[in-house]
Amino acid sequence: HRRRPNIGLASPKDRGASAASRALDLDGFFGLHPVLAPLHPLYHDGRMAVVQAVGSGDRTHSHFEAMAAMERGQADDRTGSASGWLARHLSSTQGRNTSPLRAVAFSGVMPDLLRGTTDGTALSSLADFRLDLPGAEDSERAKAVRRALARVYQNGDDAVAEAGRETLAVLQTLNQIDPARYQPAGGAAYPASDLGNGFKQVACLIKGRVGLEVACLDRGGWDSHVAQGGASGWLALQLDDVAKSLAAFATDLGPEMRHVTVVVMTEFGRRLGENSGLGTDHGSASMMLLLGGGVRGGRVFGRWPGLEDRQLEGPGDLKVTTDYRDVLAEVVARRLHNRHLAAVFPDHKPRPLGIVTG
Fold it and tell me: 22, 61, 221, 281: least buried by Cβ within 10 Å?
C-alpha cells in the first residue's frame, strides 16, 4: 500500500472501500485481484493452487529473453538447449502417443516450448486442420479422395502408413464433433476473445478423444508501464479475460477436469512500486496458477521473501524463491508420467513443492 498509493488494491478487511475494490482473501495473507472472482471458488473448493514468488534466473528484464528462457526450460536465455522443454518431454516419450494432435499450440507460429519436436502442431483454429483438396470441395469428391488415401495407408506397418491412418482418423473425428458447432456443457460461457476461443477449442479436442496430450495457449497485453489501473483499468481487463476463460473451461469439462491439469505462467512479474506513469515496470518474481486433476488446491505454495527494501532485489523487485522448473517438473513427472526429468530439464535438479499428486 505504501509503494502503490494510486493503483494498489484495498485489503479484504477494509470496509471503508467498496467490495469491487477490495482484494479477495485466500488464506488471510495472500489475496486475488477482485476481477479474478470466477477463480475464487476453485481455490476454496481445493481445485486451484497458487505458487507465489516464482520465476527464473533471468535478470535482463527483457520480455523476449525471459520468455525464451522459460519456454526452453532454462535458468536464463544465455545457456542450455535451443529446444523447448515440452518438445523434450514429447521426444523422451515418443512412441507412446502417435496422434497428429498429440501437442497443439493455438498460435500463428510454433512457440519455443514446442520447438524441436515432430509431434507439435501450430494452429490458428481447428478449422485449419483439414485436407486441402483444390478442385474437390464438393463433399462427394472429398469423400472419394479420403477413401483413396485410406486404401494407400491401410496395409502398411511403417511410420508413414501409421501416421497416415492416424491423421485420417483424427480428421474423421473432427468432422464428427464439428468444432464450429461445439456447444460447451454445464452452462459454460467462454469470453469472445482469442484466449476464450482457444480454451473452447481445447475442450472440444479433449472431449473428442483425438489423443491430445499437451495444449499451449498464449496471451499478451501485460506490459502495464502506464495507466495500469487498480481494481479497474487496463490490467483488470486482462485479468478478467483470464479468469472467465479458465472458469468456463473448468465448468465445461466438469468431471473431465480430473484428467486435465492447467498451468498458468508468465515470464516475470512487475516492479513493486508504481512509477510516475501510474504503472509498473518489469520485475522479477511473479506467480503461477495450477488447477485441475492432481492439484493440491486451496493452498498458496512457495517461500515468501518479503517486501521491505532489504528483502527486495535489483531496482525494487520481489525476489524469486521458487524456480519455475520445480513446479513444471512435478507436472511432467506426476501428471504426464515422464520419469526422464533430466532429459526435460537437463541443467536443473528439481526440488518438489508437493503441489501435484499422481
Answer: 221
Cell numbers standing for residue 56:
527464473
What element of type H or E holds 122?
strand 120-123
Contact 323, 352 (CB under 8 A): no
Distances in whole angstroms, Cα of residue 214 to Cα of each of 67, 197, 333, 336 = 19, 17, 14, 9
Residue 326 · residue 350 · CB < 8 Å: yes
pLDDT tens readout for residues 15-35 = 999 999 999 999 999 999 999
Print the SS3 string covering 179-202: HHHCCCCCCCCCCCCHHHHHHHHH
Enumerate residues 6+ apart whose C-beta is below 8 A from 238. Answer: 219, 221, 222
The residue with cell 476464450 is 196
Cell of residue 35, nine digits:
476481477
The distance of Cα 273 from the centroid of its chain, to the nearest Å, equals 27
Distance CA 249, CA 194 (A): 14
Predicted confidence at residue 276, as pLDDT, reads 97
φ, ψ for residue 2, nearest 5 deg:
-70, -40
- Tell me the one-letter amino acid at 314: G
| Average pLDDT of the segment spanning 240-259 | 98
Residue type present at position 265 = M
CB burial readout 248-269, b (16+ within 10 A) else e: bbbbbbeeebeebbbbbbbbbb
Q: 0.85 exceeded by the pTM?
A: yes
Task: Report the phi/psi class of residue 64: left, alpha or beta, with left for phi > 0 and alpha for psi in -120 to 50.
Answer: alpha
Look up residue 5 and give its DSSP letter: T
136 has pLDDT over 60 = no
Q: What is the pLDDT of residues 337-349, one digit of tens each?
A: 999 999 999 989 9
104 forms beta bridges with 121, 215
Question: Which residues are CB-neighbours of 310 under 8 A, at least 6 positions away?
Answer: none
Rounded CA separation 171/169 (Å): 5
Residue in 345, 271, 204, 239 with CA at minimum distance from that of residue 3: 271
